[in-house]
Amino acid sequence: MKIASPTVAAIDIGSNTIKALVATRNEHGRLESVEQRTLDSRISTGISGASMRLTEDAMAEGLEAVAELMAMITPHHPAKIGIVATSAVRESSNGATFAKRIEDVTGCPLQILDGENEARLIGRGLLCDPAMASWKDFRVFDLGGGSLEMLTFAQRELTQAVSLPLGCVRLTEKFVTDHKGPFAPAAAEAVRSHVHRELRKADLHFTGEPLPTAFTGGTMTTSRAILAAAKDVGFSQTTPRVTVELLGAILKKLGGLALADRRAIPGLPARRADVMPTALATVLALAEFARVTEFQHSLYNLRWGLADQLLS
Fold it and tell me: What's the pLDDT tens digit per position in 239-263?
């Protein structure tokens, strides 16, 4: 008789959101979600500065979000719980203090990932996406609040994993001077130039024929949610093939609005409205540099990779 797979839980403390996934393996060995949830909880304010430090308010909000997610997780009685943190915590001078508070609240140690391991877990999660089971040679980009992860796969084996400080919260703080007004063309150009400059320095081998490219993270999820709301359809009824043309149209619409008006856009979470134009400008700059005209959006990212690791 086949033994049922245990259940595990993964919590990903990002710079802009905190996500949880309760998962198990089905009878075919495929990773499946039992329950999942994402909370907007920005702990990364000040990430663009020379010295990053989590504020007491940010830590309190992060702890509250993690406690709420633990309340969701606990009834599932997971065999293992993994909690990781990324850019905002690893760059903070008081990240260890936050980690201790997380462990006090949850009883679980917080693993602070370096950039390479963050990228590797994202890649591991993406390989669990059944929609990409036939992909062999491809690239993956994941844009968060603090960093951008870039991965290259050859025959489904990871050959390159790079993390760059190009997250949307970081670049908004760095280049947007009027946070309440429209997204200025000068800010858009500054973001584009900065992204291209950082990509050139990273030596990412974008020569030759462009590879099929997947994108994970909140920017693409939110773009599809905006499109779904505009068409009055469910999120699942939007295509995961997201074109650069569509992203440019969304940026044009959002960029011309003041922050208060962006917050009223259906499908755009109010707490993401301030960084969404910068995020879109970053994705468009990346697409231009990599000569990509469309992305395959995947919801299988870091927390899926962590859950897969916990079940191994």
Answer: 999 999 999 999 999 999 999 999 9
How long, in residues, is the chain?
Answer: 312
Which domain does 101 fall in, by range? 8-116
The interaxial angle of helices 276-290 and 185-202, nearest 10 deg, is 50
Burial (CB < 10 A; 0-12, 13-18, 19+), residue 200, is: exposed
Whichever domain contains 14, its CATH number is 3.30.420.40
- Residue 119 to residues 156, 164, 194, 210, 242, Cα–Cα distance (Å): 15, 10, 21, 21, 22
Q: If DSSP codes are grouped into helix, strand and coil, which group holds residue 14?
A: coil
Query: Is the same domain home to 111 and 169?
Result: no
pLDDT, tens digit (0-9, with 9 covering 90-100), for 224-233: 999 999 999 9
pTM of the model: 0.92
Assigned domain for 121 exists: no
CA–CA gap between residue 292 and residue 41 (Å, rounded)? 31
- Indicate if 193 and 257 belong to the same structural domain: yes
Q: CA torsion sign, 266 to 270 to 272 to 273?
A: positive
The pLDDT tens digits for 203-226 are 776 777 889 999 999 999 999 999
Alpha helical stretches, state H, 110-217: 115-126, 168-175, 185-202
Secondary structure (3-state) at 85: strand
Domain-embedded: residue 305: no
* DSSP H or E stretch at residue 268: none
